[in-house]
Task: inverse folding
């Protein structure tokens, strides 16, 4: 039997075709959604009856074993090639964590069961494309994060020197040291209650020109640097969509070429058939003339 490949568009055996079929993928997707609902309901464990909790736990454990069986099937088909794909590593680790007993020493790992819901990110094709586009944008996002961190550090040092030396306990809590200043500036950058919870307290402490300092930080950090994240993600999604469109065009061109080749073959067969028919007519005429 030919060895299976990770290419979902081709299959070398009926077993591989069954695993890569849309029906099998839809079944796994349904189980993931059901499991997500069960885990959400179990967060209300204290208000549920013991019988309901027990039933939900049994269903959760059954779905976990179903996921483990799915991984075993893929390992049997793909063998070591299974680990050549990063998404398969993700599935293997997430399902493995779910199989760890729920003792006190593993309570945190048990809480990570909800990670199984993230398997939808690569099972659903559209989600997979978006996720892969975001992963490709990570290097650029890292550079933007570095710029943002440097900008926040510079402004935090300035804010600590200007507003940290104060007898006002509220302002001292906001800008009394470098970490506090950086955290306060992060709140300002997100624009979450920055007007009254941060800036107004600094103004009341005797700094009437403080809004100019914070507004420059907002314009640079929030309106300029943070928008670079959006531009980078949009660009990554556009490139992914362009790649998907080019792939679709290539598939259509291959289908057209294949159809043209089949047409040429049919035309050749028709010509041969016409030639044979012509020879047959000539042969019949000769036989008739002899008679």
Result:
């Amino acid at each position: 039997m030919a060895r299976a490949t990770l290419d979902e568009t081709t299959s070398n055996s009926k077993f591989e075709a069954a695993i890569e079929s849309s029906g099998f993928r839809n079944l796994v997707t349904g189980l993931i959604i059901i499991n997500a609902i069960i885990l959400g309901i179990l967060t209300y464990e204290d208000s549920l009856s013991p019988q309901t909790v027990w039933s939900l736990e049994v269903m959760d454990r059954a779905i976990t074993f179903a996921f483990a069986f799915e991984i075993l099937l893929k390992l049997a088909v793909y063998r070591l090639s299974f680990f050549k794909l990063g998404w398969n590593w993700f599935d293997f680790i997430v399902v493995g964590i779910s199989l760890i007993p729920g003792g006190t020493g593993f309570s945190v790992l048990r809480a990570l069961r909800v990670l199984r819901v993230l398997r939808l990110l690569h099972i659903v094709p559209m989600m997979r494309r978006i996720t892969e586009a975001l992963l490709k944008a990570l290097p650029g996002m890292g550079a933007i994060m570095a710029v943002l961190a440097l900008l926040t550090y510079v402004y935090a040092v300035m804010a600590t020197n200007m507003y940290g030396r104060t007898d006002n306990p509220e302002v001292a809590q906001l800008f009394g040291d470098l970490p506090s200043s950086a955290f306060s500036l992060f709140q300002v950058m997100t624009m979450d209650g920055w007007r009254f919870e941060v800036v107004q307290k600094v103004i009341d402490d005797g700094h009437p020109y403080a809004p100019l300092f914070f507004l420059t930080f907002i314009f640079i950090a929030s309106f300029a640097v943070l928008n670079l994240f959006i531009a980078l993600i949009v660009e990554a999604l556009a490139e992914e969509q362009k790649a998907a469109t080019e792939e679709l065009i290539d598939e259509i061109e291959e289908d057209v070429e294949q159809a043209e080749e089949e047409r040429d073959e049919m035309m050749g067969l028709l010509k041969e058939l016409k030639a044979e028919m012509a020879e047959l007519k000539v042969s019949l005429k000769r036989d008739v003339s002899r008679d």
Summary: DSSP finds twelve helices and no strands in the chain. The mean pLDDT is 82. Residues 246 and 252 are 10 Å apart (CA to CA). The chain has two domains: 14-123, 124-291.
